[in-house]
Design a protein that fits this description.
Layout (H helix, E strand, L loop, with lengths): L7 E5 L2 E5 L3 H11 L2 H9 L5 H11 L7 H11 L1 H17 L2
Antiparallel strand pairs: 1-2
Helix pairs in contact: 1-3, 3-4
Length: 98
């Protein structure tokens, strides 16, 4: 993980998953979720859905050997407390860019 590049990490099932908010990853997330600014607004208002968080993380995740369903289950099992810090990093990258 390289914080200077806006990367974040989350520990899931004993593995550290790097989240890289590249243009390609964010564009793919936007294709699935709609405008990222709307996602940021929902997050700021406490209205971000777990499925949206999983989708954003999935598109930004480095190859990790998990299927999307397994990835989603692992995030749900880890809990929102563990997902919030990397979410903040990704939202910061969406707003600031690099």
């Amino acid at each position: 993980m390289n914080p200077a590049r806006g990367e974040a990490a989350i520990d899931l099932r004993g593995a550290r998953i790097t989240l890289r908010p590249s243009f390609e990853a964010l564009a793919a997330a936007e294709e699935e979720l709609g405008p990222l600014f709307g996602l940021v607004e929902r997050a700021a208002q406490g209205g971000l859905r777990l499925s949206e968080l999983v989708a954003l993380f999935w598109h930004c995740a480095a190859p990790n050997g998990l299927s999307r369903d397994e990835f989603a289950d692992a995030i749900a099992a880890a809990g929102l407390a563990r997902a919030t810090p990397p979410l903040r990093v990704l939202i910061g990258q969406i707003l600031q860019g690099q």
